[in-house]
Specification:
Helix content is 44%, strand content 15%. It has 358 residues and is α/β, with parallel strands linked by helices. The protein has two domains: 12-187, NAD(P)-binding Rossmann-like Domain (Rossmann fold, 3-Layer(aba) Sandwich); 192-355, Orthogonal Bundle (N-(1-d-carboxylethyl)-l-norvaline Dehydrogenase, domain 2). Helix 6 packs antiparallel against helix 8 (221-240). It is globular and about 60 Å long.
Length: 358
C-alpha cells in the first residue's frame, strides 16, 4: 500500500479536480507508477497537497503528486485529461486546458449528471471525448484528505457518438485504470450514464431538500413513495428516448423503482413488489449514513449540479413529450435553497406530495 514514485508509462495523465473522485484516481494511478499530475483551483487544496501530499485514510503514507492551480504551469501536452469537477464548471475547465491535450489525446468526463460532454464538444471533436461512469465512492474531508466510502464498483468508459471497441487510446486508459479497479469499455455508455443519472436524480435532491441521510429516507414509507415516483419519471424519459438502461454496481434500476401494473397477475405483482423492499433494506445497511452531494453543497452555501441532473431530465422530457413535474419541482426548490429563499427540512414534504399528486 506504499507509494512507488517511479513511473511506468510515457502516457501523461492530467486530472482536473483534486477532490474525492479526481484525487483518489490520481493517487491510485500514482500508486501503480503512472505519470499523473493534478489541477485544483482551490489554493488551500493546492498548498496542502504540495506540503503534505494527498492523504487517504486507508493508506499509511501520503501520495506526492505534482499539483498546480493552472494547467499552463505544466509543460508539454497530455495524452489523457480527466475532468473531475462539477458539471457547471466544465466550460471553464475546457478553456483552461487549451493547448494541453496531445493532438490525438482524449478528454474524459468523470462527472455526475449529463450535458457535460455536450459542453466539451464545443471545444474538441467528439472522437476525443470519453464519457465515464464511476460507481465507487470516496469522501472528501477537505484540503487533500480523503477516505474510501465504497470501493465496490467499476469504471465504465465509452464514446457517446462512435464505436468504443478497438480504440487504442481507450485501451491504454483501460489498462491504467484496471491496475487498481475493474474497468469496462462499453458501446452503450449512455445506458450506464442514464441509470446513474436516474439514481442521482432521486437521492441527491431528496437529501438536499429534506436534510436527511439516505438511510433515514429509505426507512420512511411516505418519502419512499415520493422517491419512487421521481425515479419513474426518469425511467419514462429514458424509455421515450429509446435508451437501453444498463446495470450500475449490480443495480437493475427498473426493479428498484418498480410500480405494479393492473394487468400483471397478482402473484407476479407481489413478487416484483418485494424486490425493491429487499433492495432498500440492503441499501440502508450498506449506505445508510451517506449524505447526498446536494445536501453537502447546500450546507456549505455552494451551488449544486441540479441543472445537470434533474434539470437535464426535465429538458429531455420536454423534447420527448414526457411530463416530469417532480423533477421540475426539485429544480425549482433546490435553486430556491441555493438563493436563500427556501429552508432545508421536512416542511417541504407537503409541496412534494402536491407536485406528485398524492
Amino acid at each position: 500500500m506504499q507509494e512507488n514514485t517511479k513511473t511506468s508509462t510515457s502516457h501523461r495523465i492530467l486530472i482536473i479536480g483534486a477532490g474525492a473522485i479526481g484525487g483518489f484516481t490520481a493517487a491510485m494511478l500514482r500508486k501503480n507508477n503512472y505519470d499523473v499530475s493534478l489541477i485544483d483551483n482551490d489554493q488551500a487544496v493546492v498548498r496542502a497537497i504540495q506540503d503534505n501530499g494527498l492523504q487517504i485514510k486507508e493508506y499509511p503514507k501520503p501520495f506526492h503528486i505534482p499539483i498546480s492551480s493552472d494547467p499552463q504551469n505544466f509543460g508539454g501536452t497530455f495524452e489523457h485529461i480527466i475532468v473531475a469537477v462539477k458539471s457547471q464548471f466544465t466550460a471553464d475547465v475546457m478553456q483552461s486546458i487549451e493547448g494541453k491535450s496531445a493532438p490525438d489525446g482524449l478528454i474524459y468526463s468523470f462527472q455526475n449528471g449529463l450535458g457535460n460532454t455536450d459542453i466539451m464538444r464545443d471545444y474538441l471533436p467528439k472522437d476525443q471525448i470519453v464519457a465515464t461512469v464511476v460507481s465507487w465512492a470516496v469522501i472528501n474531508s477537505g484540503n487533500g484528505r480523503l477516505r474510501v466510502a465504497s470501493n465496490n464498483g467499476d469504471f465504465i468508459l465509452g464514446f457517446e457518438e462512435k464505436d468504443s471497441f478497438g480504440d487504442e487510446r481507450l485501451l491504454v486508459m483501460k489498462k491504467m485504470l484496471s491496475s487498481w479497479q475493474k474497468t469496462v469499455i462499453s458501446n452503450n455508455i449512455l445506458g450506464y450514464r442514464w441509470t446513474k443519472l436516474i439514481v442521482n436524480s432521486v437521492i441527491a435532491p431528496f437529501g438536499g431538500l429534506l436534510g436527511l441521510s439516505l438511510g433515514r429516507m429509505l426507512k420512511d414509507k411516505r418519502i419512499n413513495q415520493l422517491m419512487t415516483k421521481l425515479g419513474v419519471e426518469g425511467l419514462q424519459v429514458a424509455d421515450a428516448l429509446h435508451i437501453p438502461l444498463e446495470k450500475v454496481a449490480g443495480l437493475n434500476i427498473r426493479n428498484f423503482y418498480y410500480q405494479p401494473q393492473p394487468e400483471e397477475p397478482q402473484i407476479k405483482r407481489w413478487f416484483k413488489s418485494m424486490i425493491p423492499i429487499i433492495m432498500r433494506k440492503i441499501a440502508v445497511y450498506k449506505h445508510g449514513k451517506i449524505q447526498s452531494t446536494f445536501l453537502i453543497d447546500l450546507k456549505h452555501k455552494k451551488k449544486t449540479e441540479v441543472d445537470f441532473i434533474n434539470g437535464y431530465i426535465v429538458k429531455k422530457g420536454e423534447a420527448a413529450g414526457v411530463e416530469t413535474p417532480l423533477n421540475r419541482f426539485m429544480v425549482q426548490a433546490i435553486h430556491e435553497i441555493e438563493n436563500g429563499k427556501r429552508t432545508i427540512g421536512l416542511e417541504n414534504l407537503p409541496e412534494l406530495e402536491k407536485a406528485a399528486n398524492l
